[in-house]
């Protein structure tokens, strides 16, 4: 007989079914024993006259008849014909899968395989799966194609020190901080609309509730744009398709960096034109605007990556997307002129020879282009109002954690 989920079994009155899962509760009333059996889909009561002895979280396989019951929660129970013990719990449970006894995050992550047995924890990863799939759908529908650039690179993609070095035979290589340079080269190659769903690696030393050392990045790059507003519009539509119905989001406003700096100063938060926002600034902006999601565009060129297209002497064609006060995505129109790009590298004291493989792509005709990168875990964290980004990762990689 094929095993079915307990959520299906509850509808099979008078049928014989086979279900498998964990012992959620076990009560021995002498002649009769009650088991609450739990699988991913839910719980069901099983009754048996067998002299079986079970403990919480033992795994069992049950064959029996579904009958109506006045005492069972779902109004039905399974009268067991046979119960096979697949595996018994051998140690004291370090995390309570029923969630009644809370555990701290460190313990939960160490015993993720037990933590995951809680429905609300499973729900986080279902949401994460839903988000990435709706992202994919939204882009496929708009004729983007998914690409898979390498994550092992010969040069750091975003510049800076936050890069993991790896041994690559006799040479040094780096884990990709972003697929940035590669998505640009692909678009220059003529694949005009691409997206990526791959991890990024950042050797950020600080331990915060919104930084990971390995995060999933949802990237886009598109050719033949007029400005960063084309990218903003796409990201706005994609995000509204992803979660608009969930949180009642119909539009996302765009504010300029200059305007936001003015608002901050009016609200007694000192900031100079040209400075990047601190975490305190970002919190204040959320408080002032009072909107769930907003774009801020036109950041000073000097605080953005070298490939960002300038607007004028001071500002750039760049933007960030904020969700409940936290930056969840960043993007821009890119420089497509190779001389300008070389100058931008030199201005940041980066060496042209390190980027020659990339600069070369701009010497054979490059369309205008732009795109964004969006952090999937930050998105999940803000959507579900999680306290720590690590909750949105099965096995997070942070400053101290490499196992499990
Ligand atoms: P940026 O560095 O802003 O932009 O990253 C884009 C988005 O990725 C997420 N993110 C992170 N999430 C968790 N932990 C981290 N350490 C981390 N680092 C980044 C954030 C962030 O908004 N190449 C550009 C994107 C582009 O212009 O296309 C880039 O990487 O949600």
Give the CA-based shape. elongated
* Strand/helix succession: HEEEEEHHHEEEEHEEHEHHEEEHHEH
Low-confidence stretches: none
Bound molecules: aspartyl-adenosine-5'-monophosphate
Overview of this structure, please?
The structure is a single chain. With 404 residues, this protein is an alpha+beta fold. It has two domains: 6-87, Nucleic acid-binding proteins (OB fold (Dihydrolipoamide Acetyltransferase, E2P)); 119-392, Bira Bifunctional Protein, Domain 2 (BirA Bifunctional Protein, domain 2, 2-Layer Sandwich), CATH 3.30.930. The protein contains eleven helices and 16 strands. The strands form three sheets. The protein has an eight-stranded mixed β-sheet with strand order 6-10-11-16-15-14-13-12, sandwiched between helices. It has a five-stranded mixed barrel with strand order 1-2-3-5-4. β8 and β9 form a beta hairpin. α4 (119-141) crosses α6 (228-247). The longest helix has 23 residues, at 119-141. The chain is elongated, with a radius of gyration of 27 Å. The structure holds aspartyl-adenosine-5'-monophosphate. Residues 158, 178, 180, 202, 204, 211-212, 215, 217, 219, 327-332, 371-375, 377-378 line the site of aspartyl-adenosine-5'-monophosphate. The site of aspartyl-adenosine-5'-monophosphate (AMO) has 23 residues, from β11, β15, β16 and α11.
Short description:
The chain has 404 residues and is α+β, with helices and mostly antiparallel strands. It contains 11 helices and 16 strands.
List keywords for this structure.
8-stranded mixed beta sheet; binds aspartyl-adenosine-5'-monophosphate; 2 domains; alpha+beta; 404 residues; OB fold (Dihydrolipoamide Acetyltransferase, E2P)
């Amino acid at each position: 007989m094929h095993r079915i989920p307990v959520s299906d079994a509850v509808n099979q009155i008078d049928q014989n079914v086979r279900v498998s899962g964990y012992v959620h509760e076990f009560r021995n009333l002498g002649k009769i024993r009650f088991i609450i059996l739990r699988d991913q889909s839910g719980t069901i009561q099983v009754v048996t006259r067998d002299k079986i002895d079970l403990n919480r979280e033992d795994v069992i396989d049950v064959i029996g008849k579904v009958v109506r019951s006045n005492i069972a929660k779902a109004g039905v129970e399974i009268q067991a014909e046979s119960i096979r013990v697949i595996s018994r719990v051998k140690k004291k449970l370090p995390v309570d899968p029923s969630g009644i006894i809370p555990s701290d995050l460190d313990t939960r992550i160490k015993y993720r395989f037990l933590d995951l047995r809680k429905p609300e924890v499973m729900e986080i990863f279902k949401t994460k799966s839903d988000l990435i799939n709706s992202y994919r759908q939204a882009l496929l529908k708009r004729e983007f194609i998914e690409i898979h650039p390498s994550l092992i690179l010969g040069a750091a993609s975003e510049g800076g020190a936050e890069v993991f070095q790896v041994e690559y035979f006799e040479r040094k290589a780096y884990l990709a901080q972003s697929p940035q340079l590669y998505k640009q080269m692909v678009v220059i190659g003529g694949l005009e609309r691409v997206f990526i769903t791959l991890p990024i690696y950042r050797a950020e030393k600080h331990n915060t509730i919104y930084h990971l050392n390995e995060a999933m990045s949802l990237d886009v790059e598109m050719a033949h744009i007029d400005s960063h507003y084309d990218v903003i519009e796409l990201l706005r539509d994609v995000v509204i398709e992803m979660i608009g119905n969930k949180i009642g989001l119909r539009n996302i406003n765009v504010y300029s960096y200059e305007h936001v700096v003015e608002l901050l100063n009016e609200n007694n938060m000192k900031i100079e034109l040209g400075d990047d926002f601190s975490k305190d600034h970002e919190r204040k902006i959320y408080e002032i605007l009072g909107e769930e999601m907003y774009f801020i565009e036109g950041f000073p060129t000097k605080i953005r990556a070298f490939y960002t297209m300038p607007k004028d002497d001071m500002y750039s064609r760049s933007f960030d997307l904020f969700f409940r006060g936290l930056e969840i995505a960043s993007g821009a129109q890119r420089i497509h002129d190779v001389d300008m790009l070389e100058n931008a590298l030199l201005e940041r004291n980066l060496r042209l020879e390190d980027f020659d493989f990339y600069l070369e792509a701009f010497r054979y005709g490059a369309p205008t282009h732009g795109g964004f990168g969006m952090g999937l875990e930050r998105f999940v964290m803000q959507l579900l109002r999680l306290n720590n980004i690590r909750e949105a990762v099965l096995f997070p990689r942070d400053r101290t954690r490499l196992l499990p």
